[in-house]
């Protein structure tokens, strides 16, 4: 039987490879009894028993209820011990913080949400976010944190966990977000763009399909998460999908990034709010004007809701923005050829009014072959989607990518996960 040292440093041996596979099969429900494991893996009964006993000894698996009998003795099922650890997801948006704690299977145990301006800077923002996480963990049963995922509303170098020149995050450029969380929680951390978390959530719904998918978020800003054959595509430096800063021909509006004519400066939520205020100042009336007159700051959500309720100004803003976004998405369709496009964010919540314009431009401007089997839909707009996407990302990194490096430790460590041998 392999000892801890063998499992840790000889992770490519047949014994370790089969042991890791068995743990993952039970975790995913692909085979949950010893006979099933033998049939799927081709391993003999004695080898399966040895591997399962080892996984039970290490605390990854345990015996559960009996499976239905097929005529002989009913086999005992196995279960993955998801309660052993916790996954923490911290989704930072431009105007909010959303944190959640789950077990290793992704079942949400607790969550919290707070309105927050990301422009207040990394020190204050992370202090607030970690205080929210600490409060959730204090109400839990004391299970250790095995992984954290942090989503940021800007470009992220995934390898280092640092934001890179994020337009709406002053003071964040190059900040060691991963290091700050790893130091506090002594657990591996992954930092990614917030739209990638949403794309991962959609991927999780289609885990067996090896899907090619684009998730386009149209909120205050605009961004896209790309999934290719079931894998998130981040590009060489993590900048893939930053469609919000594609140039719109003829546009002269100044973007928050400092450039001129970006898609976000024409069709992003903050740009539509800007245009709504200008129209109201010019005498426009209706629901949006009434909201503005009440003293409330207009938000993208107000435009989407007012459009759904028939406000003429809001409808014109949503449709104009959707047409520009549809043109940018059409370019992605021609280059990327996805099978599914999911539109999410505050403006996409206007529903069919928004989606019809996007569809029209995509089908008008894309190649027939690229759109032949294409589905374009609005996100279910579940507020828990960033948490589910973060968990999916954490599970991928823990159990599909880094498992051989930390399995022998019994739980993931920062050094083992990031490949730094002692």
Distance between the termini: 23 Å
Global mean pLDDT: 91
What's the helical proportion of residues? 40-55%
Round the Cα radius of gyration to an integer and report it: 24 Å
Give the tally of β-strands: 14
Please list the strands of the largest sheet in the order they lie side by side: 5-4-3-6-9
Strand content: 15-25%
Class per helix and strand makeup? alpha/beta
Largest beta-sheet details: 5 strands, mixed
Low-confidence stretches: 1-11
Give the number of helices: 17
Gross morphology: globular
Layout of strands and helices, then pairs:
Layout: H1 4-9, H2 14-28, H3 34-41, H4 45-57, E1 61-66, E2 76-80, E3 86-92, E4 96-103, E5 108-115, H5 122-138, E6 145-152, E7 156-157, E8 162-163, H6 177-185, E9 189-193, H7 194-205, E10 213-218, E11 222-228, E12 231-233, H8 263-267, H9 269-281, H10 287-293, H11 300-308, H12 312-336, E13 340-344, H13 352-365, H14 368-371, E14 375-378, H15 385-401, H16 403-406, H17 414-417
Parallel strand pairs: 3-6, 6-9, 10-13, 13-14
Antiparallel strand pairs: 1-2, 3-4, 4-5, 7-8, 10-11, 11-12
List keywords for this structure.
422 residues; alpha/beta; 5-stranded mixed sheet; disordered N terminus
Describe the structure.
The chain has 422 residues and is of the alpha/beta class. It starts with a helix and ends in a 5-residue tail after the last helix. 43% of the residues lie in helices and 18% in strands. It has a five-stranded mixed beta sheet, with helices on both faces. The longest helix is centred in the C-terminal third of the chain and has 25 residues, at 312-336.
